[in-house]
Amino acid sequence: MSNKVEVQARNIRLTEKIEEYVKKKAGNLDHYLPTIEEVRVELAHYKAARNANDRNAAQITAHGKGFVLRTEERADEALAAFDTAVDNMQRQIERYKGKHFHGRGDGRSAAEVTEDIIDDETGELSPLVARRKKFVLYPMSEDEAAVQMRNLGHDNFFIFYNAETSKINVLYRRRNGSYGLIEPEVG
Question: Which domains does the chain have, with CATH numbers?
Fold first, then answer.
């Protein structure tokens, strides 16, 4: 365990046994991705959750140089949520390695993988972005965007030009079935 693990608890009594278990398991994430420098784990209990199976949440955030991976899971018990979140984080790490190391999940370093992404004919590196999509954004209201999102079968998100604010927005479906709106601002 070479990475730093920080454990926080909200509305849960964090016993020494639970903290030790969480630190040990979260500390092993660098086994899957050695460039993880820090892991933050937050265990929380939500009394007002509608479903009893969603009352305990575990959020894991892994930080490394140039990346942040995050997952959150809910369950009826805090450690069950944490174990599921760890499993999801391991899958996220594998996807991250696949995207950044072009499908190589064999634990090789980035330098070793770079040899695989050099085009044999030209001798140049293959592009990092493998696919680009362009589409026309039509001005519409938030309500129209929700209708378009449903009509097009976009289950997770929909990008549109908000006619009311004259900005590009992202409409997304939340876990409880309602919608959220992302309004980007240039920093």
Answer: 4-117 (3.30.160.100), 139-182 (3.30.505.50)
